Amino acid sequence: MMKPAVILMIIMILIAGCSIVKISGTADLILDERDLQEIGMRSSEIDCYIEEYETSEHSPLMQYCFCNFTIDNLNDTEVALEFKKFTNLKDLNRSYQYDSLHYFSVEGLIRENDFGDQSRFRVNNENDYMGYLDVPGLYNYNLWICKDLYMIHITSKGTEEAEDYIAKIGRKILEKFR
Predict the structure, then answer these.
(1) Is 1 within a domain?
(2) Into how many domains does the chain fold?
(3) Predicted confidence (pLDDT) per residue in 107-151, tens digit
(4) pLDDT for 85
């Protein structure tokens, strides 16, 4: 006869296993109005599109999703979300290294690996490639995150206060993987 503790543990494992949401594509990562409200943001409109591609050895990108919106309560700061799903980790890692390091100086780096292994959070800097053309007082934050076969890129154009919002958006998207 099974002990009650063992039976309870089996039931808890079954319940936990059934409550896990499986991310099956980039559409599962898109933020909705409820997500934005939980973060403390308002947006008048979220505009997204998703593309799916045939994959092969030389074409590892399965899905691409791009969303843009404005943070109304932050002086109309513009935010873009970019999600890419790859067929393998090798190509994901190559793309991440290129995207998150290409054209950027080390001076703009805010944090690394705070959003999981292989994450970079940065702000524009005059030492970036063509950084001398940046508009004074305009802050461009970029957060790259790799999770499973996905590369997530969050970027903003607006005020300095957007830094906290971009971090919250990153955490909200990562919650979707739990």
Answers:
(1) no
(2) 1
(3) 989 999 999 888 999 999 888 888 778 888 889 999 999 999 999
(4) 96
If you average pLDDT over residues 66-89, what whole number do you get?
Answer: 90
* Residue 111 CA: distances (Å) to CA of 2, 74, 173: 50, 22, 18
pLDDT, tens digit (0-9, with 9 covering 90-100), for 148-168: 999 999 999 998 999 999 999
Question: What residue numbers bound the domain in which 112 lies?
Answer: 23-175
Does a structural domain hold residue 105? yes
Could you tell me if residue 16 is inside a domain? no
**Cα torsion for 87, 93, 95, 98, to the nearest 10°?**
-170
Does any domain span residue 18?
no
Do 82 and 159 contact (CB within 8 A), yes or no? no
Alpha-carbon span 20 to 92, nearest angstrom: 24
115: exposed, middle or buried (Cβ count in 10 Å: 0-12, 13-18, 19+): buried
Alpha-carbon distances of 112 from 23, 64, 101, 160, rounded to whole Å: 24, 24, 12, 19
